[in-house]
Amino acid sequence: MARIMYDLCGENTALRFSPFCWRAALAMHHKGLTFETRAWHFSDKQDIAFSGQEKVPVIVDEDDEVVTDSFEIMTWLDQKYPGPALFGDDMARSRARFIKHWSETQLAPALMKIAILDVFSIIDPKDQPYFRESREARFGVTLEQFQDTEQGFEMLEKALPPLRAQLEGSSFIDGDHPGGADYLVFGMFMLAYVVHDGALFKSDDPVAQWHERMLDLFGGLGRNAPRTGSH
């Protein structure tokens, strides 16, 4: 049986914008694993009911083992498959978990401020009522009130100094070569890269230069991803 990953998509199934699915996909490429992606919409919950939960990514391995949650998938890959490590030992994995939390609490809110209406515009119309209801319940305001591109970029700039400082001294977060920490952070940026028409960074920013290197990994996996707008 082929290895399968259920991957969130837009109305155009070629648009893959989930930060968490990007983390898992990059991690599997890092391990040199082949896999088939299956496009999944928010309303396709029955398609992954076998996993016991309702979110992607979901990995079904060649032996029918099922793994969910991007960080758990990355941990599982290190435990099951030899080759270049994503996290390494328990201490490194614990530090990576801190980076996961930083990216999800500092980067994700800024990127959603910038791009949430872009996401809403490209998802399947059948998914839009769920997306609107669930996000507006979380934010306490409408999507239109929540999006504030200027504020989002201000929030992003406030979040970037630790990442910028790290990248002034090394090519990647994990050093000379990319690793799990890089994928945890880069996956977040792929949401805006896919759905938002506009640059996230100034070209001379170390973060921008790292982002370009990350886009080129694995034969340009990120750079060649289908995008919206005038890209």
TrEMBL record:
In this protein, which residues make up the domain named GST C-terminal? 89-231
Q: Which Gene3D superfamilies match?
A: 1.20.1050.10, Glutaredoxin (3.40.30.10)
- Transmembrane ranges, per UniProt, are none
Q: Which InterPro entries match?
A: Glutathione-S-Trfase_C-like, Glutathione-S-Trfase_C_sf, Glutathione_S-Trfase, Glutathione_S-Trfase_N, GST_UstS-like_C, Thioredoxin-like_sf
Domain GST N-terminal: where?
A: 8-85
Which PANTHER family would you find in this protein's record? GLUTATHIONE S-TRANSFERASE GSTA, GLUTATHIONE S-TRANSFERASE-RELATED
Name of the featured protein: Beta-etherase
- Organism from which the protein derives: Kushneria phyllosphaerae
